[in-house]
Design goal:
Layout lengths: L1 E3 L2 E4 L17 E4 L1 E3 L7 H4 L4 H4 L3 E6 L11 H12 L10 H11 L4 E4 L1 E2 H9 L8 H16 L4 E5 L10 H13 L3 E5 L7 H15 L2 E4 L13 H13 L4 E5 L4 E5 L13 H8 L2 H8 L12 E5 L11 H8 L3 H11 L5 E5 L3 H8 L4 E3 L20 H16 L5 H8 L1 H7 L15 E4 L22 E4 L2 E5 L2 E2 L16
Parallel strand pairs: 4-5, 5-6, 7-8, 8-9, 9-10, 10-11, 11-15
Antiparallel strand pairs: 1-2, 3-16, 12-14, 13-14, 16-17, 17-18, 18-19
Helix pairs in contact: 3-5, 5-6, 6-7, 7-8, 8-9, 12-13, 15-16
The structure holds zinc ion.
The site of zinc ion has 5 residues, from loops.
Length: 501
């Protein structure tokens, strides 16, 4: 393969020419992986190398997932983003999507970046975190903000329907917003309203949104959470298959693990989140509120032994221990311990939740319309992104699919594994000239060892790069060279219109 001016110039035998040569004999060459479900929104501003993504062969991350994005931001969305950025000593230098894109470009990135607009973010821009339906005026304001962001290059919209305030949105509201996305050829990605006991209703809602708005739908991190619900992915995938046969353009993605990762605040019911995280924390100080919370069901079912702290800023020693364990050691009731911990951390504690079945993971992976996405931010084994014990998917997702699931366990073929992380997500995003190896395509290229490729990150020891992934080329420049990150920051900010759609 010959690469020139950021594109694949030729593929074939007997190519010669000047410049750098990488000898890939005995190795395999694939298009760079496109992480269709990334949460690197802030991490890429902290460390422009996006280390844990780059080392997995990811050449494009799709941010703004699960209803939360970094732009556009006004009102509560702006102040919440400022709180997040302040944890890394960063300041918000943008309001609009175009300004955000320019800030990312100024900062530089080792790999390509694009983003959805977050539905929760839109709500926070227009109506704070109020637990009610949007008025006609508020809906019009959200539509206008969304349309501007799409014009400025956002690749679609995401919802996070278990996370307030996105969770406060009605199906009708989302249909109205999704129609704006559809008009501009964008994608609608959804962390659906329930991945447990009401999984089928939630998938049906995602499909209904696609049917009514004509938007193309991407159901995020497809799974059945909670032991009583294991096996329901057979029914949920059947719903998707039927909808696809009926002409609804719906697909899904998956990370290859039996644990999820989110915030500890998911153990608190939606109503207690009204007003935003700081308002929730104030509420959690009250014993009456705690009593009411205790009586209410939440999707996680508060399976405390299965909920493990990944990161708590003021208590690094909590990382890797379950809430059940920590509460017992403190002589506290687990829910009381959780409320205290959330109050102490302004609501911001990351968890790993062991909640899925291996059979389900394998069943879902084998569906041909399932793409692979990490559902993680790019971390690094050094610096501010090395804290805690994050979910190992941050470092292992793509090599794990290639090595464990394709090569070793043969759940899918190696070729199909590559497709699920390259041309399939590229097609969903309508990314032009990426996700494929052909003459004229952008030179996002990965050289890997199909015999050795393997994830090394574990729940106990997550900050470990994978094996067998020596070279990553982004827009024609070598970003990972013999397993070492280079100084190249050749990643581009990809925009709907110019690069996709
Ligand atoms: Zn999610």
């Amino acid at each position: 393969m010959a690469i020139r001016d950021g594109r694949i110039a030729a593929i074939g035998d007997g190519l010669t020419g000047g410049g750098r040569t990488i000898d890939a004999r005995g190795l395999a060459v694939m298009p760079g992986a496109i992480d269709i479900h990334s949460h690197s929104d802030e991490a890429m501003l902290v460390n422009s190398a996006l280390e844990s993504a780059l080392h997995q062969g990811v050449t494009t991350v799709v941010c703004g997932n699960c209803g939360g994005a970094s732009a556009p931001v006004l009102g509560l969305a702006a102040s919440e983003l400022e709180r997040d950025l302040a944890r890394f000593g960063l300041e918000r230098g943008w309001t609009s999507y175009a300004e955000y894109a320019a800030a990312v470009e100024r900062n530089g990135a080792s790999i390509n970046v694009c983003s959805f607009v977050g539905h929760g973010t839109l709500r926070m821009c227009v109506m704070g975190a109020e637990m009610r339906a949007a008025t006609a005026g508020e809906l019009a304001a959200m539509k206008a903000l969304l349309a501007s962001a799409l014009r400025e290059g956002a690749i679609g919209m995401s919802t996070g329907l278990i996370y307030p305030p996105s969770a406060y949105g009605t199906t009708d509201e989302i249909v109205a917003l999704a129609a704006v996305v559809a008009e501009r050829g964008g994608l609608y990605a959804s962390h659906i309203r329930n991945e447990g006991a009401r999984l089928l209703d939630a998938v049906a809602e995602g499909i209904e949104i696609g049917r009514r708005s004509a938007v193309r739908v991407q159901l995020s991190h497809h799974k059945a959470s909670g032991k009583p619900n294991w096996g329901r992915v057979k029914d949920s995938t059947a719903l998707i298959v039927r909808a696809r046969a009926d002409g609804v353009d719906v697909t899904a993605d998956q990370y290859p693990y039996t644990a999820s990762s989110t915030g500890l605040a998911v153990t608190i019911p939606d109503w207690a989140h009204e007003g935003g995280p700081l308002a929730m924390v104030e509420r959690l100080r009250g014993p009456l509120v705690r009593r009411r919370i205790r009586d209410e069901e939440v999707e996680t079912c508060r399976n405390w032994p299965a909920i493990v702290i990944a990161r708590a800023q003021h208590h690094p020693e909590w990382s890797g221990r379950s809430v059940a364990d920590l509460a017992a050691a403190a002589g506290r009731d687990p829910l009381e311990w959780t409320c205290d911990a959330l109050v102490e951390h302004d609501g911001d504690i990351a968890i790993v939740h062991h909640s899925m079945s291996e059979d389900d993971v394998r069943y879902v992976m084998a569906k041909e319309w399932i793409a692979i996405g990490s559902d993680s931010r790019a971390n690094a084994p050094y610096g501010p992104l090395s804290s805690g014990k994050p979910h190992p998917r941050s470092y292992g997702t793509f090599p794990r699919v290639l090595g464990r699931y394709a090569r070793d366990e043969k759940v899918i073929t190696l070729e199909d594994a590559v497709r699920k992380m390259t041309s399939l997500p590229a097609a969903r995003l309508r990314l032009r000239d990426r996700g494929v190896l052909r003459e004229g395509a952008r030179a996002d290229v990965v050289v890997f060892d199909p015999l050795r490729v393997a994830d090394r990150a574990t729940y106990d020891d997550p900050h470990r790069y994978p094996d067998g992934m020596p070279y990553v080329i982004v827009n024609g420049e070598v970003a990972l060279d013999g397993g070492e990150t280079t100084a190249a920051r050749a990643g581009r900010f990809l925009r709907l219109g110019a690069d996709a759609g």
